[in-house]
Amino acid sequence: MRARWAMVVVSLVALTAAARAQQRGAISDAQYMALALSAAPQAVARGAAVVRMEKNGTWRTLRPGHNGFTCMIMGTDKMCNDANAMEFFRALMDGKTPPAKVGISYMLAGDVGASNTDPQATHKTATNHWIVTGPHVMIVGPPSKALGYTRALDPDPNLPYMMWAGTPYEHAMVPVGPPKR
């Protein structure tokens, strides 16, 4: 039991140091990997690939994976996606139609917020319905739309809701913990 707590404390110290380094802009690949993997459950993180975006927009593989999941940091958000969710988010980044496949994305570190109406928004405005969601799972693809979750512009981030409702990038947000305050 003590060994487990020691490991938890060491992990928290490493993640805190990595977060501080990232804020300064100087984050090592090892720190980046620890932060990216914090998005997923341990069982998924163990076998997930880790990729890092280079300054020229290409992805560099820091660690190959063997379970079909890829973890990364997008801006300040940490996420771990299955192959279908990776295709979904690539389509979003490229402004293309997303694939008609169900996908899963873990964001167990939560997020710092996003517009609930504009998939391309990068900051809060008076009209873009900014929402901060704590640790959550995203379900992407057409089947997510059949879940019946609220499509409200300003939903309760403690309950499941549809993000970007009415756009090609609509997907389900399923909170698993409270938002950070």
Name a few traits of the molecule.
eight-stranded mixed sheet, alpha+beta, 181 residues
Question: How do you describe this structure in short?
Answer:
The chain has 181 residues and is an alpha+beta fold. Helix content is 27%, strand content 24%.
Describe the protein's architecture and organization.
- The chain is of the alpha+beta class and 181 residues long.
- It has one domain.
- Helices cover 27% and strands 24% of the residues.
- The chain has helices spanning 2-24, 29-37, 42-45, 83-94; strands at residues 49-53, 59-63, 69-74, 77-82, 103-107, 114-115, 130-131, 136-140, 161-163, 171-175.
- The strands form 2 sheets. The chain has an 8-stranded mixed β-sheet with strand order 2-1-3-4-5-8-10-9, with helices on both faces.
- 33% of the residues are buried.
* Overall tally of structural domains: 1
* Straight-line distance between termini: 31 Å
Strand content: 15-25%
- What's the story with the biggest beta sheet? 8 strands, mixed
- State the helicity in percent bands: 25-40%
Uncertain stretches of 5 or more adjacent residues: 1-24
Determine the number of helices (DSSP H or I, runs of at least 4 residues).
Answer: 4
Q: How do the strands line up in the largest sheet?
A: 2-1-3-4-5-8-10-9
- Based on secondary structure, the structural category is alpha+beta
Mean pLDDT: 86
Gyration radius from CA atoms, angstroms: 16 Å
Spell the H/E element sequence. Answer: HHHEEEEHEEEEEE
Number of strands: 10
Shape: globular
